[in-house]
Amino acid sequence: MDTKTISQVLQEYRTWILKLPDVTGLAQGGTSQNPHITIYLRSHNEKALQQIPRTLEGFTVTIIETGPIQACDPP
Questions:
Q1: How does DSSP classify residue 23?
Q2: Residue 12, SS3?
Q3: Distances in Å between the alpha carbon of 1 and those of 10, 32, 33, 60?
Q4: 3-class state of residue 22 by DSSP
Q5: Is residue 75 included in any domain, yes or no?
Q6: Residue of 23, 36, 50, 57 with fewest CB within 10 Å of its CB?
């Protein structure tokens, strides 16, 4: 069985993760030797935290609380 790349794992789980409460985004983090998945939460949300696994397909999941995110006006 082939091992999935972090990009494949992100693509596979993206829709599910983004539907969780207060999730504002996700990204690949870490280094090429030690990649991890970063999930951004608007605020500390126990319901979301309980649903987010600590690993996905062998990749460590890191959670960062962002606060509200707003688009800026262009310069």
A1: E
A2: helix
A3: 19, 22, 21, 20
A4: coil
A5: no
A6: 50
Whether residue 21 is contained in a domain is answered as yes
Closest CA to 51 of 41, 4, 59: 41
Instruction: Express each pLDDT in 35-51 by its tens digit.
Output: 999 999 999 888 889 99
Residue 75 has pLDDT above 90, yes or no: no
Structure tokens at 7: 């990009």
Residue 60 and residue 36: Cα distance in Å, rounded?
Answer: 5
Answer yes or no: is 72 within a domain: no
The Cα–Cα gap between 47 and 63 comes to 14
**What tens digit of pLDDT does each residue of 1-24 get?**
568 999 999 999 999 999 999 999
Q: Residue 39 belongs to what domain range?
A: 6-65
Q: Does the model's pTM come out above 0.70?
A: yes
- Domain assignment present for 73: no
